[in-house]
Amino acid sequence: MINVGIAGASGYTGVELVKLISNHPKAKLCAVTSNSYKGKSLTDIFPSMRGFDNLICEDLDIKSLSQRIDIIFLALPHKVSMEHVPTLLEHKIKVIDLSADYRFADAKAYESAYQTHTSKHLLQKSVYGLSEIYRDRIKASNLVGNPGCYPTSILLPLLPLLKEGLVRPDDIISDSKSGVSGAGRSLSPSTHFCEANESFNAYKVGNHRHTPEINEILSIHSQQEISITFVPHLLPLTRGMLSTIYVRATNGTSENDIRKTYQSYYGDEPFVRILDKDTYPAISHVKGTNCCDIGFYFNQKTKQIIIVSVIDNLLKGAAGQAVQNMNILFGLTDETGLNSVQGPL
Amino acid sequence: MINVGIAGASGYTGVELVKLISNHPKAKLCAVTSNSYKGKSLTDIFPSMRGFDNLICEDLDIKSLSQRIDIIFLALPHKVSMEHVPTLLEHKIKVIDLSADYRFADAKAYESAYQTHTSKHLLQKSVYGLSEIYRDRIKASNLVGNPGCYPTSILLPLLPLLKEGLVRPDDIISDSKSGVSGAGRSLSPSTHFCEANESFNAYKVGNHRHTPEINEILSIHSQQEISITFVPHLLPLTRGMLSTIYVRATNGTSENDIRKTYQSYYGDEPFVRILDKDTYPAISHVKGTNCCDIGFYFNQKTKQIIIVSVIDNLLKGAAGQAVQNMNILFGLTDETGLNSVQGPL
Amino acid sequence: MINVGIAGASGYTGVELVKLISNHPKAKLCAVTSNSYKGKSLTDIFPSMRGFDNLICEDLDIKSLSQRIDIIFLALPHKVSMEHVPTLLEHKIKVIDLSADYRFADAKAYESAYQTHTSKHLLQKSVYGLSEIYRDRIKASNLVGNPGCYPTSILLPLLPLLKEGLVRPDDIISDSKSGVSGAGRSLSPSTHFCEANESFNAYKVGNHRHTPEINEILSIHSQQEISITFVPHLLPLTRGMLSTIYVRATNGTSENDIRKTYQSYYGDEPFVRILDKDTYPAISHVKGTNCCDIGFYFNQKTKQIIIVSVIDNLLKGAAGQAVQNMNILFGLTDETGLNSVQGPL
Amino acid sequence: MINVGIAGASGYTGVELVKLISNHPKAKLCAVTSNSYKGKSLTDIFPSMRGFDNLICEDLDIKSLSQRIDIIFLALPHKVSMEHVPTLLEHKIKVIDLSADYRFADAKAYESAYQTHTSKHLLQKSVYGLSEIYRDRIKASNLVGNPGCYPTSILLPLLPLLKEGLVRPDDIISDSKSGVSGAGRSLSPSTHFCEANESFNAYKVGNHRHTPEINEILSIHSQQEISITFVPHLLPLTRGMLSTIYVRATNGTSENDIRKTYQSYYGDEPFVRILDKDTYPAISHVKGTNCCDIGFYFNQKTKQIIIVSVIDNLLKGAAGQAVQNMNILFGLTDETGLNSVQGPL
Question: What is the ipTM of this complex?
């Protein structure tokens, strides 16, 4: 049994982690922390979370936690994670950090989008937790920087094509759309029901902080500097994310090459599904699951490729992938605790 | 292992049953039938249902089924169920019928709301599948008439108070509100997105077919003819149901009597939760679960009791309670396969 | 031309008033005030409000306003209204107050639900602005206490029946449901998109502040103390309100009596429509209009009457009725500026 | 007074036309036709349309209509329009056709996307009703092919930049998102509430019929063959459309050039608004209006331009622009009947 702690358990990502770990056959939830709800049980905070009356939110006291847990998920804001990670590792607690703090190899890229990094040396040790791509490195790691939701929805479909040289690296656009839960539980005018409901808009056009994260990973895998065009939008729904990605095939690339490459990368993957020709995914197809569904269109004449990918932003885009990474770290199959069947509604 | 068949697997209730049985540790899904999608796999019909490529919708051929299954769930329209149930029982297949056909003890009550009953003799053998109330009879039965969603949300809170004489039987009102999935997958103007979205209305005022079902059960337990006032409404959301019930306490009834009675009936029940004073449930608290949450207000001066109950109409109101009944029938604990933790979103 | 000021123009009710007055053929919007957005134009605050670049939010400086306006709408929180109304009247500015401060005749009733009233003497002069019922008094008044949204949806259908003795005054229940805009523009957990979306709940069961307002008006018109049972609920939609009202007919009352009474009260009213037998209103039928649609069911045997009424909570429930009252005050027909046709979407 | 007929008045576009013409100060609604509801009044069909009890849906009998109307709006399916237009013109009835039948100059382009055109000679006489761009030709025309919703949202922002040579014609992508009302009132699985709600998807990737319409107009204005990449998506909301358009600036183009060009084309236009730098529109900013709001981002380094445009698909994308075209045809200012103020909700 893996003994698990969750820091920041009262946020939307934290509570998804609580749900997944509670339903996990090989993990035991031993501790939860919350700044805002210290001393309260999860059932107090979330009436839907029945049976958690004895799971009381505590302070993030690492010494105390180290007696009880093998691994901690940090569902904390960036910068706050950094304050705890070095000490957690010293206490031999494995860390899966869902903030941006350990996603970057290049501290400068991190610092350009966030703030001064206070434990740069750990960036070399941390692994980017895109499970299907970095599985081998995750296995051997003590510190996983869990990917952002937008990057996950974009990198999973793009990386195989880029690595195999099937698409041009200089003309990549992702038009991405996220449900409101991506903005978290904090109150803000843009997440007020009356403002988000029956509306839709682009935001942070040209300067969303997930852009450098995507660029770094794409650049590493294509061995050249890549700069994608990324525009996020806010959907009037709670969970789910869809990215429509526009790329150009390199000379000689055929539709079949693309399909075969996807098959070779993801044919055995439980959580990535490549759809048949002329079939495209909807958010409802993956809501409540850890899956990423990918459909694509290839225009033979213009060499344009249009890829549509969907994930549940709280699962494959956050808590689900984090648990998948825990499974990998502890030598379990990826699906452990993540394979319950989800219906259409 | 319980070998299970599901008839009508391509409707919203049918597919919820598929989901629950697939996630159930003691049951195996052996056959699914569908009129509209014969020959298609569930994955073809519902892209979210991955891994069901080999589960092909077949005809409801009882002889063939009898070789393979111990129990069948009928997620069929009323009248269609009746055509199959006698033969299913002859072939020693246990039946949990989610239509209205075997919910009534009194054929006349059934016929006044539906149509001529073609197997009246079975009404004496069938058990009304309100699990918490009829558990003992369900255990011994081969035919369960699974309750309607509205009746479940109304009877669970009302029956204990009526049976113990705490409320007056002559003045009961239930103002009930259901999500759109209650209307099923068939297309109709009232379930067109643009009509239901951003709207809300009462329907079938004074003559909804669930009224005689509720009245029969209430009457049996209070040993007098009861006629409730029931008004259903359509909520602009997919899953969930809330009933606000207005009753009058009998002389001498105190708030404490009500709370103690609920405690005595439901204190050990895994799926019914009585909320603390001044606390009321929301649909989001039970969505995705088999639970019924109940809060109540007692006006000492006027003797008015206001009860608010919520369920997920597709689970405790249909497929979830059906699986709970299967568990009871086969001697499993009620929670088997139904106790996964659900988060707030 | 009526010169109009609007105080609190940046709230949802305030901005609806801006919209209505701007579209009004006989009124001119001369001043808007806002605490939070002083110095900003309405177009700055609400990008949808184009053409208001020169309408700058100012302080509520009564002396300055008195040079420019004949009437002011106060879309302010209760208590704040009270601080300004006496001075406004001294400066000969007519007042339509949308807070609760001048809705009550009985200061004690007000004070039990809100706080100490600081201008009790004005309660005798103020008129309750339920336009169809108090039209004559509104005409002659300088101070209108504009009704709450819930009270409007309940009083319009109930008052004619109570005044004519058709229903029993001792057993009145209103189960009411409001869209989220009723909670205003201020941020709160219950109006966060992810919390309200796909959910539904009752709130303030047994103690909502609109209850004494409803009771006072009902009591005045039935010449006895009335205490209704009122339960508000929060709908996952932006605009609209539906009340389902349960009352008992007095002996001898027939369905025809009810219909004739409604006809006599509302047959000539432009904004109240009584629906045909077996027809019930939906929120979508009145959204964007100043109308109240009423359908009813009469159970001859039990004498139960079920009334369903719908309004747009921001229009007939607030800004629309306020403008209707302005029209009455200035001798215009009620419909002036309020009769644009609204489609089904 | 302009005497107006509306054919297909019971669809969502038709009923919006009814609303606009009814609220129009210079037009009179004289006749409505409907296949499905012949003999019924609009109030019967749409309870929200009060006061239309005497407006009875009739057959499209051109001879009879020609006695009563000056102009007809055809809110009919493509192909059906074609069957009536030649005769309508013979009877001297001006036509604004909201189907695709008269949007194309090139019959072959039409026929590749739709079907055989039966009155090709009229394609030379018909004018494409993109009001701001074709105003002069519309003035002199008797037959307007009213643009599709997607084309309107894409062409308004693109045409000025293409005509002035500021963007490259060979690399244009529009990622467009529409509310469900765009799919009309007919029932279909994809517009069932439970399917569309809480979901989002791309559809007709690579082959939507609006693509050739967009291409033809772009090609005419850039004097070369243009083939855009266009991907439509379905939003879980009723009204509104947003297009995110990705283009490349030509050498030497500056951000200021773009802004000045927009200013020169649209600075005096009442219904097109160019937003300030770093500001992007939301669907809620134009819902209920005939406006198109446009924001853009210019990446100096990469020459990428990202344009975000929003319209109400039923107004500027259909009925609103049609009425604007009627105004132009009859020498009225564009805003007549279209300039009522709309609030944020």
Answer: 0.97
